[in-house]
Each structure stands twice: as structure tokens, then as C-alpha cells.
Amino acid sequence: MADDDSTLLPTKMDAAEESTAQSTDAGPDEESYPLAPELPRHYLQSLLERLGYSIDGDAPRVDSNERRFSLFGLLACLGVLSVVLAIGRNLPLAIFAGLAGLAVVFGQIAISVLRVRWSLVHLAWWLALAVYLVASACAVLVRWQNRQW
Length: 149
Known about the structure:
- This protein has helices at residues 2-8, 15-25, 41-51, 64-67, 71-89, 93-114, 119-146.
- By secondary structure, it is an all-alpha fold.
- The longest helix has 28 residues, at 119-146.
């Protein structure tokens, strides 16, 4: 019985067995299987400059005023939202949801094409997206309750 217990214990390996075990566990070397292809430096530089980074690894160039908006800007954004919701109350719910969806899509296209970084515009887009999602969910629920599929 003592012999059976001793076989379960790990045995000490000599140096030759350790080197063999380490070389097989290491896997393929990086030279034979590169992780990513090498890209030309000018390609990387142009890509990083589009993202706002320099090739030297500096932080992105972001103006601190682009991240901020005033209380007046927030009030104006919420005022426009309330006017849109007041107009939307007079429209059928499905049409209002469709118009809000179009506004979200065209707003995202405009933000992307014009590369707008002003945070108030992004806040307005997120509010429009929230209005679209809520209006769409309400339109689906109303149609489901009325069984008008």
C-alpha cells in the first residue's frame, strides 16, 4: 500500500528532462509564426494621425473645451428635446419613431463626416437615440396590445 501512495507523489526530474519538458511546453517560436504582418511606417503614421496620436506615442491631441459644455448648452439641448417631444405627441407613434430613427441615422452620418468633437452634439445624438428607442418600444407595445400586426 505504501508503494501505491509513493507513485502519486511527483518525482524529481533531472536537468535533461526539465529542458525537454520546457522546450515542448513553449509552443511554436514567434519567428516562424508572426502574430501580425509588418506594416509600413508611413501607413501606421497616417493611421495614428487620423486617430489623433503621433508616431512617438504621445497622448491624443484633444482640446479641453471640446469635452465640456456649459449649463446653457445643456438647457438648450433639453429645450430642443422638449419641443421635439411636444411635436411628436401630435403624430402617430409609429411615424414619430420612424422620424426619430431617421434623425439618429442622419445625425450619426453628419457627425462622422464632419468629424464633430463637440460633446454637446454627441449628447444631443444620444438623447435622440434614447427618444428613438423609447418611441419604437412604445409603438411596438401599442400595436401588440391592439393586435394590429
